[in-house]
Structure prediction request, 290 residues.
Amino acid sequence: MAKVAFLGLGVMGAPMAGHLVKAGHEVCVFNRTTSKAEAWAEKYGGRFAPTPREAVAGAEFVMACVGNDDDLRSVTVGANGAFEGMDKGALFVDHTTVSAAVTDELYAAAKDHGIGFVDAPISGGQAGAENGVLSIMCGGDQADYDRAEPIMAAYARICRRIGESGAGQKTKMCNQIAIAGLVQGLSEALHFANSAGLDGRAVVEVISQGAAGSWQMSNRYETMLDDHFDHGFAVDWMRKDLGICLSAANENGASLPVTALVDQFYKEVQKMGGGRWDTSSLFKRLEKLS
Prediction:
């Protein structure tokens, strides 16, 4: 078993860190809101520290799951950052969804400090984190990934190295691009069913068993039809992720017309006051327009 630090105790990070404790690892956590760290330690029996630098002292592995590029920089670099407190030879694993640019930056900074760095964004939502069945897509040096994989197994259903540093973040972009189109397609199908006077539940019961079936359909259609949008990944975070995708596409020449369109639809949802609604709220936008 390993000595592990976990930075960031949001809806994903808190249960992930908890799974590490359940797997027998010695875990110390950090969170900007100290009360969350205290509550986590009381629930799971681990320790907490007031700064990232103190949390990582003596840790063989440091996992992070924070909000965005700036949040990640704030817990890694600087006088109180994790990189200053990590021992040479230790390994930093980033589960945050961030830009490939900040991944390149921190990979280089980690190397300068004599530590490893694996970008390992996750998919599976809050339920996946709580149940320990996340999909983890990784980039980084093979040897670093090989060391990290047994630790990540505590909360993973599947964990794969896709390529060199940055490949994990680029794979997560593919994930978000695919989800954006799927959710819009499902929203339009349910909206059409309502407009045609059909029973949406009966429709999904049939079409979900054929080629139209998807995770989004199986797990979101009922809450969409019930006008409930407080399940899972928020629109604000999805727009952050899609912005990363579109920026990367501008650099590599990829054409993402549907992604760009859905991003604008999510912008309209935000204007409706739905920034904290889950991503299936694209359906609510369509219903409001009709």
Q: What stands out?
A: The radius of gyration is 20 Å. The chain has a mean pLDDT of 97. The first strand starts at residue 3 and ends at 7. Strands lie at 3-7, 26-30, 47-48, 61-64, 91-94, 116-119, 122-123, 134-139, 156-163.
